Each structure stands twice: as C-alpha cells, then as structure tokens.
Amino acid sequence: MESLASSSAIPLLSPPPSALSINTTTKPRNSVSFKHRSQQVWCTSSSTMNTTPSDLSTKTTKEEKLWGGRFEESVTDAVERFTESISFDKALYKQDIRGSRAHASMLARQGLISVSDKDSILQGLDEIERRIEDGEFVWRTDREDVHMNIEAALTDLIGEPAKKLHTARSRNDQVLTDFRLWCRDAIDNIVAHIKHLQVSLVTLATKNENLIVPGYTHLQRAQPVLLQHLLLAFVEQLDRDASRLLDCRERLNFCPLGACALAGTGLPIDRFMTSSDLGFTAPMRNSIDAVSDRDFVLEFLSANSITAIHLSRLGEEWVLWASEEFGFLTPSDAVSTGSSIMPQKKNPDPMELVRGKSARVVGDLVTLLVLCKGLPLAYNRDLQEDKEPVFDSTKTIIGMLEVCAEFAQNITFNREKIKKALPAGYLDATTLADYLVKKGIPFRTSHDIVGKSVALCVSKNCQLQDLSLAELRSLNPVFDEDVYEFLGVENAVKKFCSYGSTGSECVAEQLDLWVTKLQINRAGHK
User: Fold this and answer.
1) Known active-site residue 147
2) pLDDT digits (tens, 9 = 90+) for 259-313
3) 328-350: string of b/e by CB count within 10 Å (b at 16+)?
4) Is the preceding peptide bond at 153 cis, omega within 30 degrees of 0?
5) First and final CA of the chain: distance in angstroms?
6) Would residue 87 show up in a list of annotated catalytic residues for this protein?
7) Which of 25, 290, 331, 498 is within CB 3.0–4.6 Å of 256 for a Cys-Cys bond?
8) Are 398 and 193 within 8 A, CB to CB?
C-alpha cells in the first residue's frame, strides 16, 4: 500500500515526498554510510512510496530484540516478515521523535534521568531526524517498527543514555501518541484542502452570475435554480465536512503518553507536562482506555468517508453535465483524457475517479470497524493494522479534494445550450401553484389545477406561458393577466423569496457570505 509522506503534516496541494528505500550492495554516489552493529548499508532516496519488506534492510546475523531478554530463540524469517510494520509506520517518524523529545525532557525534570543524559538523547534524536530527512537513515525489518528503529539507532549513536529513554513508556502508549499527533496534522491538512475547494467553487459561482439551470429531483426536471445556488450547495456540504473533522480533532487531542502498557507506572512521571509540551488538551484519564482506544481513528475515517461521498456526488453531477445528453459544461483539455481507440472522445476522467475512489475511502472505514469489533481490552497486536487504512484514506481524500479543485478551475458552462434546454419539463409549474395560493386557493386545489394545466400543455405541445388567459380560465376563473409574471423560468426564479432559496437576492446574500468567510475578492484571488 502507498503510505503517506514521512512528515508531520501532508504538504498542501503537492504530492507526498518520496519514501526511503535502501541499497545493501553497492555504494551510490553522494550517499552516506550508517554503521550498524554487524553490517554497513548505504541509503539513497527513492521516488517511490511503495516500500515493501524486500526494500528494507535485513541482516544475515540477527541482532537481539530490545524485548528479547526472556527469549532463547530468535523469531523465524517468516514471522519477522509477517509482523514487521516499518514498511508503513515509518511515516510516523517525525511524530515519534517529537514524542521522545517531550518524554526525555519530562524524565529529566522528574529526576528519572540526568540532564546530561537528556541532552545526549535530544542531540541524538536531532541527528536521527536529519539523517531520515536527508535519506541517510536505514529502516530495518529486524527492528520491526518505527519506534524500535529509532531507539536502536539512538543506542548505536549515543550508547547507554539511549537505554533510559524508554523509562515509564511502552510501545502501546508510544504508538498511540504518535498516531494521534499524525492524525491531528492530517486533519489540519485536509481542512486546508477543503477550504481550497470551497474557494474554487465560490470563485466559479462568481463567474456565472444569473445563469439559470434546471434543478432535479429523482433525476427529473423539477424547478429552475441559479447555478450559483447549486454550486453553493456543495460549498455548504464541504463546510460541514470541515466542521466534522475539527470536532474529531478536538476529541482526539488527548495524550495517552505515560499510560505505558495498560496500567500506568509506579515511577513519578508528569503526564501533564508531556501532554502540554505536545500540544494536547490534557492526558487521557484512564490508562486502559488510553492504549486501547481507536475511536478517534474510526471518527476520522468516518468524517473522511462522508467527505468522499460528497465529492462523489459532485463528480457524478459534473460527469452527467459533461455528457452529450446534457452538454451543460465543458472541461478544458487540462482536466480531460481521451480514448485509445475512439479519437473523438474527451472524457471527464478525473471526476469519474473521484466517484470511484470514494469506495476506497469508505472501504478504509469498514476495514477499521471490522478490525476493532470484538477486541478485548486493552492492547492487541491486531491494532497494528490500523495505520495503513488511515494513511490510505488520508492520501486518497486529499487527492480527491485536489482534483475537484483543479476541475472547478478548468470548466466552462455552456450558457446557450442550457438556455435552450430550460423550457422542457415545466419548471415553472410550482411557481404557478404559488400564484394560485396567493389568490386564496388552497394549495392542494392549486396543485390539481396546475396539474391539469400541464396536461393541457402536453396535449398542445407547448409551455405554460404559451397558454392563453382564456385557456387558463377554463381551468379556473381566478386566473388574471398577472399570471404571466409568474410563468417562464426567469420569472419563476424572481419569485423565490424564502431564506436559503434560489431567489436572486437570496443567492446574492449567500454568495456574499461565502466570499467574506473565505476571504475571496471578486477576481477570485485570496
């Protein structure tokens, strides 16, 4: 699976940087060696994110595990390959190092390690972070995961002080701290991408003032709406998406560090200090809950899934509108693809893939739901499998948001074709019913009268506004000359006046609100 960039936050509007791969045979030019206990390997950066166990360093002679004191035999190669997680959880390296810095500082403050040891640890962690980011670090499968890789490398680098870093800490609370920090950064990044798409949609709306399009229910023509109103509907959905993610961020922002394996520790640590240093709201109250909770992951992927469904609906709308049958919009060549056999084709493939990739995001959520079902308290190794769906969901949703924004910036609406399409479907029928209500006729009776008016139009192959006053009065004598002020799509749109409706004044107010909220000027520049 493609893991995300190994950075504290996924870069805004840019592809993730490359992962790290290693070459254990020949020294590449401009590479730097990193001496391990029994083997020297050379590292280079690679352009691929697809890191598999075969890309990672292995050793002919296995080193003793950091947890191996009570074991007399080393694990088999098959077990090691099956249980390693470094091929994907190295994406957490920055968060892991950040957590270790805070933990070491707390241990020194509490007198559990010396200030000298703390300084050595911090300097060593700085050097390891530099080596990782410069492509000099070697990720090793025999060291299982990101935590053990960094701790073992720190021991190689500074010796005995590194062995004190894991005081009053388990990988159980360590990984949850890393993961919460990573998800917090990812949420911030996704919310920024959501805002970028909102800006693109509002900018598109400002460029298409007064354009009326058919509104649909059941995929049948219903009522006329302003295109701006339709576009702002997606902006509203995205606003709720961002709100859900920020709510999730608030709930996940509690620190498990110091919960240790599950029961806490008998050592005098200060969990409030590490929580504050890492930007959390507070430590988690219950140590068992702290190491077993994955609610924040489920909530995060649920929020991503709802966002993906909204984007899929936007994709479907635009795929339909780009078809010859609709012809309401034309994507530019920059966001279209062709056919390998049919030279005339111009396909809105990005939005089709947005529609398709929503299934992937929903699938990531389902994976986590099934993974967590029935697990006993507290930690279980099953939970190692929580990382890849989260990484995939985050990477996918960011890609979907990016391409939707690109598409919005590269489409034009075909005004003439839309205008020619408007008369079909009797879009002004409900407005005609409103006219009768204003004349004092009960709505159900008005509904029946307008239904008969439409039937008359169908028999005459004409529109409601083409019926003569005499024909209308044959259905009900209340009709008067002013009825024609309610007929036709332009007149119908003008008559909408309820809050949030598609009336011109109402939509102008909605548009002004979003222009102000998103800090857009009318030229579309932030």
Assistant:
1) no
2) 999 999 999 999 999 999 999 999 999 999 999 999 999 999 999 999 999 999 9
3) bbbbeeebbeeeeeeeeeeebbb
4) no
5) 36
6) no
7) 290
8) yes
Rounded to two decimals, the pTM is 0.85
**Beta-ladder partners of 23:** 42
Per the CB < 8 A criterion, the answer to whether 469 and 495 are in contact is no
pLDDT single digits (tens) 389-420: 999 999 999 999 999 999 999 999 999 999 99
- According to DSSP, residue 140 is labeled B
Q: What percent of the chain has pLDDT over 70?
A: 86
SS (H, E, C) 182-249: HHHHHHHHHHHHHHHHHHHHHHHHHCCCCCEEEEEECCEEEEEEEHHHHHHHHHHHHHHHHHHHHHHH
Q: At what angle do helices 349-372 and 387-408 cross, to 10 degrees?
A: 160
Q: What is the DSSP letter of 272?
A: H
- Are the C-beta atoms of 223 and 426 separated by less than 8 Å? no
Catalytic residue among 33, 54, 243, 339, which? 339
Active-site position among 218, 459, 498, 525:
218
Q: pLDDT tier at 24 (50, 70, 90 boundaries)? A: very low
Helix axes 146-158, 171-206, angle to 10 degrees: 120
DSSP state of 337: B
Q: How confident is the model over 331-380, as pLDDT tens digits?
A: 998 988 888 888 888 888 999 999 999 999 999 999 999 999 999 998 88
